[in-house]
């Protein structure tokens, strides 16, 4: 009797999950496998259909040895990722700490900071960038900007110039991260903070000894979310390059598929390195 009940419950569970499984197989797994197959092919779209020719690793070789634009785009993407992710995480944490304080209109402020998430689609951001809304007003009149703009060469100058030009856009991506930090702060044990204050701990000590270690798992989650969001944003230079090659006569879908898989491996490596580094550091801190 018990086995029949378990079998019935399992069947009901599989029925509820089956739409997602079917959708995943049709619209995610199959396109992924097909694009991997196309990455080893020379693809031509003719009036009689799609024609493929097996060319081994030629698409991948071309990406690294001949397509200098792709290498430059990937290098630019990695530089922006290294600069942008820490800034977004730190900014989100600061805003979440401020929004967790008991201030008037706290709900309104939380809504305002989450508002960019709703309208941060590619076309909207592009339109705002074209109108100059996403840059600091009158920044070109400041001496430091003029100096950096006249001397863009050099690693430090490049980083500072990128930050000044894209500061508002970088902060625009912080809505979800603020929400995750805020949820974690509201679930923290208040009694620990009260005990620390009774023992004479200052707010600075409480932040470094209690708040920040308690938020460590959320920092890892937000880092993963930020890297993924930043990497798949439609205005990402690598994605734009892949889209352009998709419809070129001399490259086409086969080459674009190989670029997509290379980009996927780079993103996976970035996630693995960042999460692995933070996990090891967290274990050492508590060992």
UniProtKB/TrEMBL annotation:
Broad class of the protein's primary localization: membrane
Pfam families reported in the protein's UniProt record: BPD_transp_1
Gene Ontology CC annotations of this record: plasma membrane
Annotated SUPFAM superfamilies: MetI-like
Domain ABC transmembrane type-1 residue range list: 74-274
TM annotation in the entry: 12-34, 81-100, 107-125, 159-185, 206-233, 253-280
Coiled-coil segments on the chain, per record: none
Lineage: superkingdom: Bacteria
Keyword Glycosyltransferase recorded: no
Compartments (UniProt record): Cell membrane
Keyword tags: Cell membrane, Membrane, Transmembrane, Transmembrane helix, Transport
Membrane topology (UniProt): Multi-pass membrane protein
GO biological process: transmembrane transport
Family, as annotated: Belongs to the binding-protein-dependent transport system permease family.
Protein name: Sugar ABC transporter permease
Species of origin: Falsibacillus albus
């Amino acid at each position: 009797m018990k086995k029949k009940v378990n079998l019935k419950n399992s069947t009901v569970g599989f029925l509820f999950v089956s739409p997602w499984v079917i959708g995943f197989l049709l619209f995610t797994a199959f396109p992924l496998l097909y694009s991997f197959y196309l990455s080893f092919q020379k693809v031509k779209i003719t009036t009689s259909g799609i024609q493929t020719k097996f060319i081994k690793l030629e698409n991948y070789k071309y990406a690294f040895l001949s397509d200098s634009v792709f290498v430059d785009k990937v290098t630019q993407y990695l530089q922006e990722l290294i600069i942008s992710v820490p800034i977004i995480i730190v900014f989100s944490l600061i805003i979440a700490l401020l929004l967790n304080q008991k201030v008037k209109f706290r709900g309104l402020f939380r809504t305002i900071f989450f508002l960019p998430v709703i309208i941060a689609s590619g076309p909207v951001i592009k339109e705002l960038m074209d109108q100059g809304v996403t840059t600091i007003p009158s920044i070109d009149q400041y001496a430091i900007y003029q100096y950096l703009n006249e001397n863009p060469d050099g690693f430090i100058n490049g980083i500072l110039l990128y930050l000044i030009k894209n500061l508002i856009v970088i902060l625009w991506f912080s809505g979800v991260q603020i929400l995750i930090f805020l949820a974690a702060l509201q679930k923290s044990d208040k009694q620990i903070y009260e005990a620390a204050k009774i023992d004479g701990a200052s707010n600075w000590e409480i932040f470094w000894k209690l708040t920040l270690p308690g938020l460590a798992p959320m920092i890892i989650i937000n880092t993963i979310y930020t890297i993924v969001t930043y990497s798949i944003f439609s205005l990402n230079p690598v994605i734009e390059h892949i889209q352009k090659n998709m419809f070129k006569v001399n490259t086409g879908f086969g080459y674009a598929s190989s670029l997509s898989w290379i980009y996927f491996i780079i993103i996976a490596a970035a996630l693995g390195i960042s999460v692995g580094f933070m996990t090891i550091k967290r274990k050492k801190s508590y060992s």
